[in-house]
Write a structure and sequence with these properties.
mainly alpha, 0% strand
Length: 204
């Protein structure tokens, strides 16, 4: 049946690695933190602390830090009544971004940060969808195999009766009509001796 290959395809998605997306954020953080330190050397009173690299590398810490940086650097285009930036706030952010660009950061470094931050949310959404789609595909495969088994059962009677005295032909039919289901694997228990995963580390 054509439905069976289609259902199997739903189980073969190759998701983008979360670590690769976090690595991109790490690079953004390092560039911004390094540049903020340089600005502070030339501009006494410049507050470099909010731009410092986060203390740990968990996903939650990284996304929170990215959101904080974007609040400082990115224009909020929402209406002022809804919490958006005033013209004065947008001018101040533009001047702040210019300080970083003056130290050779790309002019679109904030846009890059935004894209890398959003990629984490998109990956989490895609992972949830892929897992759900995989469950649906597994159920669909079971339904299709059940339908195939019903057809084979009916054909079995048609083949068995006329060839009951022809064992060679019956063996060929039995081999061709065999439907094998994948065994159900038991969930692996965690090995208490196995060390916990090491924390994420920033790129060199």
């Amino acid at each position: 049946m054509a439905k069976l290959p289609v259902a199997q395809v739903g189980q073969l998605r190759d998701p983008v690695g979360k670590q690769a997306l976090l690595d991109a954020l790490f690079l953004d953080f390092k560039d911004i933190a390094r540049t903020a330190r340089s600005i502070a050397l030339d501009e006494p009173g410049f507050a470099a602390a909010p731009f410092r690299f986060p203390a740990d590398y968990s996903e939650k810490t990284c996304t929170t830090h990215a959101d904080a940086l974007l609040t400082l650097l990115e224009d909020n285009a929402a209406p002022v009544a809804d919490g958006g930036d005033t013209p004065a706030e947008k001018a101040a952010k533009a001047a702040l971004r210019a300080k970083f660009v003056a130290f050779a950061l790309p002019a679109d470094f904030v846009e890059d940060l935004r894209e890398d931050r959003d990629a984490i949310d998109e990956r989490n959404t895609d992972k949830h969808h892929d897992n759900f789609q995989g469950v649906l595909s597994t159920k669909e495969i079971d339904v299709v195999l059940g339908q195939i088994q019903s057809v084979v059962t009916r054909l079995d009677a048609v083949m068995q009766n006329p060839f009951r005295r022809a064992p060679e032909k019956l063996r060929a039919w039995q081999s061709a009509s065999h439907i094998e289901r994948a065994p159900v694997r038991e969930a692996k228990e965690k090995d208490p001796k196995k060390p916990a995963d090491s924390p994420l580390t920033p790129p060199a």
